[in-house]
Design goal:
By secondary structure, the protein is α/β, with parallel strands linked by helices. It is globular, with a radius of gyration of 16 Å. The protein has one domain: 2-Layer Sandwich (Transcription Regulator spoIIAA), CATH 3.30.750.24. Helix 2 runs parallel beside helix 3 and helix 3 crosses helix 4.
Length: about 140
């Protein structure tokens, strides 16, 4: 587990507050044809025990090249803060294509918590969690044969 002080040194753009506050890195706006399509904001939540949760707050449309951008953000978070809990917050996601669902399922299987609060994103999250559970059961059945 990386300590919050080390995380602040390693990731200087994040504001880390040990008293349980929230740290934010300026959002990365990804644009296509002059308009924002996806925004990923890094949020680092700290606790008094020195544990941190790194949240990738996703807003917009998770399709095509934006899926690759979310993968890059996930990998970067893993590299910068190995051992830190990771979370994806589907904050204002309007659409997720098949590739986006595959990535979110991969992230979920790797231990990333998927958070959703509205009906659309909750349905997407539930499908991903259900599919990941089915995949685990299917792999377990074939490995026992």
């Amino acid at each position: 587990m990386i300590e919050l002080a080390t995380m602040a040194e390693t990731y200087p753009l994040a504001e880390v507050n040990v008293v349980g506050g929230v740290g934010h890195q300026p959002a990365r706006y990804l644009r296509a044809a002059g308009r924002a399509m996806l925004r990923i904001t890094d949020v680092i939540d700290g606790s008094l025990e020195g544990r941190a949760t790194w949240t990738l707050k996703v807003e917009g449309t998770l399709i095509n090249g934006w899926v690759l951008e979310l993968r890059r953000a996930w990998r970067r978070a893993q590299e910068v803060a190995p051992g830190t809990s990771l979370r994806v917050h589907l904050a204002d996601v309007r659409f997720v294509d098949a590739a986006g669902k595959v990535l979110l399922a991969e992230m979920h299987r790797a231990g990333v918590e998927i958070v959703a609060h509205d009906c659309l994103t909750a349905a997407i999250r539930d499908d991903i969690v259900r599919a990941a559970a089915t995949d685990r059961r299917a792999r377990g059945a074939t490995s026992r044969r």
